[in-house]
């Protein structure tokens, strides 16, 4: 068994054996979908004429995927460093790349399961989401999005030393972004200056990319813009993460 | 260890430290330490809390970089992270360093995989530290002693040449402690080198070939426990049941340096135990007389107390 396989298996077991984590990863974002879906059931956004669910479903999915990537890696990194597991890994010949790759694969798998689950629920007649044939464009956007939010999570996990600090910082980043980037509230219904401002937020690109894919407004160019934006965030935060990474809390 | 590994040159020692220094802020944690640990040696690092033991061992392990001086571990430098050297070393982990929500066996299998070592080592190592029965118990519900044994197992699972143990018997009950002594002696008899820190001086005396006593970042004594005890010339204590001898009469014996009454015994401190015992035997008989020779602990307390002065806390 390679170091990468061993770490992936260990992370997988740690995830599925913790009901709270499973709940917050899958059920919690789903609650937003159900609540928003029921509140805005059958309603359309005046500015575009499209149903609210067409905005909310991709929005909640984007936020849920981003949230899980940020929290998952930030908590793991903080915990592994606090418990001296990083020190243990540091003393084995396991390359740092296999540590990161195992987290990456876990995050991608969680994102894939979330996507299938959320879209599946949104497709129920009660909510009435329509998925267009252009949906496969969402896949590269999802992968880029998970990469970008994983990098953000790594920065948070490298700096925060307690679970409270991780939760506080990650929530500070993710909750305002949910509203400002159009994930929880249609951007089309927002003032134009906010629509412009949302372009500095990574969730905007993830949300926009997925939203276009499921509603049949995606093409190579729009997907490239979404993926490019997310890749830029991934690069910037990835570079910061490399700079801030610490093997142990003791300097 | 694999068969195709080139035989290590017998001449190269396991560890060579020369003039190693490490400073944190205005505290000189390690203040010019030089020592050599031979292959197959059982080497104890002793000293009061805050003496610099942990920093010193972390420099040996390659977790910290020395500010000055040179460090050679199994013939190469442990800093920066030396991927060729790491599999040849085993380090007892902190008892918190277990993969979350895994069982003892799963944790150790993960560690073995990180070292790229034979998975067969997992069951063998669990048996060695007496955790076979707990192999399917989750790490978070193991008892303190069991966690400690799993932490030790993490240092042994890949069959390293050089093993670092940090107070390995601290949380163990007396039976488990003696069982671990057997494990450590067996590891030594296989030719492995063991460097360990402890506060149990009786244990260091029983196990170590040599010990280094560290105070305030410096080596204040470095030798075999026997020679350290011998060189200290600490007095021997003879304990005579109180009914047989009064303090006054005891003082009259030649060689009785100091006499006190302690818990039902008359305690005679002497530096010539042989002649004094003979005289006592002729007078009151040897029955029931107990002899307490100086131990490593006496030497340790003398050295650390003297040098650390009032900084010594219980």
UniProtKB/TrEMBL annotation, chain A:
InterPro entries on file: ABC2_TM, ABC2_TM_bact-type, ABC_2_transport, Nod_factor_ABC_transporter
Signal peptide: none
GO cellular component terms, A-Z: ATP-binding cassette (ABC) transporter complex
One Gene Ontology biological process: response to antibiotic
One MF term in the entry's GO annotations: ABC-type transporter activity
Membrane topology: Multi-pass membrane protein
Residues spanning the membrane: 21-40, 60-80, 101-125, 137-158, 165-185, 220-242
Localisation: Cell membrane; Membrane
PROSITE patterns hit by this protein: ABC_TM2
A Pfam family hit: ABC2_membrane
Taxonomic path: Bacteria, Bacillati, Actinomycetota, Actinomycetes, Kitasatosporales
Broad class of where this protein is predominantly found: membrane
Family: Belongs to the ABC-2 integral membrane protein family.
The protein, known as: Transport permease protein
Domain ABC transmembrane type-2 positions: 20-248
Top-level taxonomic group: Bacteria
Keywords: Antibiotic resistance, Cell membrane, Membrane, Transmembrane, Transmembrane helix, Transport
TrEMBL record, chain B:
Entry keyword Aminoacyl-tRNA synthetase: no
Keyword Cell membrane listed: yes
GO MF annotation terms: ABC-type xenobiotic transporter activity; ATP binding; ATP hydrolysis activity
Keywords for this protein: Antibiotic resistance, ATP-binding, Cell membrane, Membrane, Nucleotide-binding, Translocase, Transport
This enzyme's EC code(s): 7.6.2.2
PROSITE patterns: ABC_TRANSPORTER_1, ABC_TRANSPORTER_2
One BP annotation, GO: response to antibiotic
Enzyme class, first EC level, given as a word: translocase
One GO cellular component, as annotated: plasma membrane
Transmembrane feature ranges: none
Domain spans labelled ABC transporter: 15-241
Location in the cell: Cell membrane
Entry-linked InterPro entries: AAA+_ATPase (IPR003593), ABC_transporter-like_ATP-bd (IPR003439), ABC_transporter-like_CS (IPR017871), ABC_transporter_ATP-binding (IPR050763), P-loop_NTPase (IPR027417)
Main location: membrane
Topological relation to the membrane, as annotated: Peripheral membrane protein
Family classification: Belongs to the ABC transporter superfamily. Drug exporter-1 (DrugE1) (TC 3.A.1.105) family.
Stated name of the protein: ABC-type xenobiotic transporter
Record lineage: Bacteria, Bacillati, Actinomycetota, Actinomycetes, Kitasatosporales
């Amino acid at each position: 068994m390679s170091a990468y396989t061993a770490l992936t298996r260990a992370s997988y077991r740690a995830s599925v054996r913790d009901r709270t984590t499973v709940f917050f990863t899958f059920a919690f974002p789903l609650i937003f979908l159900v609540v928003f879906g029921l509140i805005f059931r059958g309603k359309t956004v005046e500015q575009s004429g499209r149903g609210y669910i067409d905005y909310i479903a991709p929005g909640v999915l984007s936020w849920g995927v981003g949230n899980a990537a940020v929290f998952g890696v930030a908590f793991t990194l903080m915990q592994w460093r606090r418990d001296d597991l990083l020190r243990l890994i540091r003393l084995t010949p396991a390359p740092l790349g296999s540590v990161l790759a195992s987290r990456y694969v876990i995050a991608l798998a969680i994102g894939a399961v979330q996507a299938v689950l959320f879209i599946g629920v949104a497709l129920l007649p009660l909510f009435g989401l329509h998925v267009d044939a252009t949906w496969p464009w969402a896949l590269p956007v999802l992968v880029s999005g998970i990469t970008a939010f994983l990098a953000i999570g790594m920065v948070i996990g490298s700096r925060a030393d307690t679970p409270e600090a991780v939760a506080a910082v990650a929530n500070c980043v993710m909750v305002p972004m949910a509203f400002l980037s159009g994930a929880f509230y249609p951007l089309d219904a927002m003032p134009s200056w906010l629509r412009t401002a949302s372009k500095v937020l990574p969730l905007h690109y993830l949300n926009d990319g997925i939203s276009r894919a499921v509603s049949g407004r995606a093409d190579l160019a729009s997907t490239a813009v979404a993926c490019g934006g997310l890749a830029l965030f991934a690069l910037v935060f990835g570079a910061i993460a490399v700079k801030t990474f610490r093997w142990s809390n003791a300097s | 260890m694999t068969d195709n590994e080139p035989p290590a040159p017998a001449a190269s020692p396991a560890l060579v430290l020369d003039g190693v220094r490490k400073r944190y802020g205005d505290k000189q944690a390690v203040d010019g330490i030089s020592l050599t640990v031979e292959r197959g040696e059982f080497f104890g690092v002793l000293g009061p809390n805050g003496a610099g033991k942990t920093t010193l061992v972390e420099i040996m392990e390659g977790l910290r970089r020395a500010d000055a001086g040179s460090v050679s571990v199994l013939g190469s430098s442990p800093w920066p992270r030396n991927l060729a050297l790491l599999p040849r070393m085993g380090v007892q982990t902190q008892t918190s360093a277990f993969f979350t929500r895994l069982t003892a066996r799963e944790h150790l299998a993960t560690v073995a995989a990180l070292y790229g070592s034979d998975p067969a080592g997992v069951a063998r190592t669990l048996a060695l530290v007496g955790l076979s029965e707990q192999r399917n118990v989750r790490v978070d519900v193991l008892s303190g002693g069991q966690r400690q044994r799993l932490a030790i197992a993490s240092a042994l699972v890949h069959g390293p040449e050089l093993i670092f143990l940090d107070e390995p018997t601290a949380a163990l009950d007396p039976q488990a402690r003696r069982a671990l002594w057997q494990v450590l002696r067996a590891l030594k008899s296989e030719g492995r080198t063991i460097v360990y820190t402890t506060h149990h001086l009786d244990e260091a005396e029983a196990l170590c070939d040599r010990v280094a006593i560290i105070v305030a970042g410096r080596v204040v004594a470095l030798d075999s426990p026997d020679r350290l005890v011998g060189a200290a010339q600490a007095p021997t204590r003879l304990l005579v049941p109180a009914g047989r001898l009064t303090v006054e009469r005891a003082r009259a014996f030649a060689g009785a340096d100091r006499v006190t009454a302690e818990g039902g015994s008359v305690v005679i401190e002497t530096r010539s135990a042989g002649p004094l015992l003979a005289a006592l035997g002729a007078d009151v008989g040897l029955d029931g007389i107990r002899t307490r020779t100086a131990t490593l602990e006496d030497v340790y307390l003398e050295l650390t107390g003297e040098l650390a002065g009032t900084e010594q806390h219980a």
